[in-house]
Write a structure and sequence with these properties.
The structure is a single chain. Helices cover 29% and strands 22% of the residues. The protein is of the alpha/beta class and 205 residues long. The protein has a three-stranded parallel β-sheet with strand order 1-7-8. A three-stranded antiparallel β-sheet has the order 2-3-6. It has a three-stranded mixed β-sheet with strand order 9-10-11, covered by helices on one side. 34% of the residues are buried.
Amino acid sequence: MGAVALGGACDGRHGDCVASLDHRRLQRHQTSHSAGLFASAANFAHQRKRHRANLHAIYAETDGKVVSRDELSYEHFSAWTAWAKEREIGLDFNPTYFAHPMAATGYTLSSADPKVQSFWIRHGIVCRYIASEIATALGGECVINHWIPDGAKDATVDRWGPRRRLIEAYDEILNEPLPNPAWADMRQWLTRHSAPAFSATRQRA
């Protein structure tokens, strides 16, 4: 099954974003037009049943309102879901643990600052609820990829502390019960001083 990822940056204050498909940049548009641009990519519509689209939390459609990432909800992605349902393709979902003042230190879920870590934990929790609602609406599975940028090769005195905090953060995020079991969580923690570490938690009906 093919997988297509939307990539780029979104400005929640103005509701616009830059979308990309297969590493090709598309011009800047309002998020309400991004789906149309995405669907017009060559051969995509002809193979729609074989494809899935991956949305980042920053692609929320907020009608120009500022919505904190820890306060996002399914309604901000309902238009994307309707778009995918009409084209009979699946949707996967990514929390966006970067490009935010709360990620300025390079640490999010493993941050030693309780305020910062708590913010990103709340973001992870609401994103799982969003993915659960997407799965319900599309009648399938919505894979959640928890990619985080945490890591630093210049501060190696405490190697266990960030890992311990990350484990505790994921426990809090993943222990939140969801109404729809048709989802899957994928966790990926990339650091600059070690090989990528992968783990997964899956729940099925």
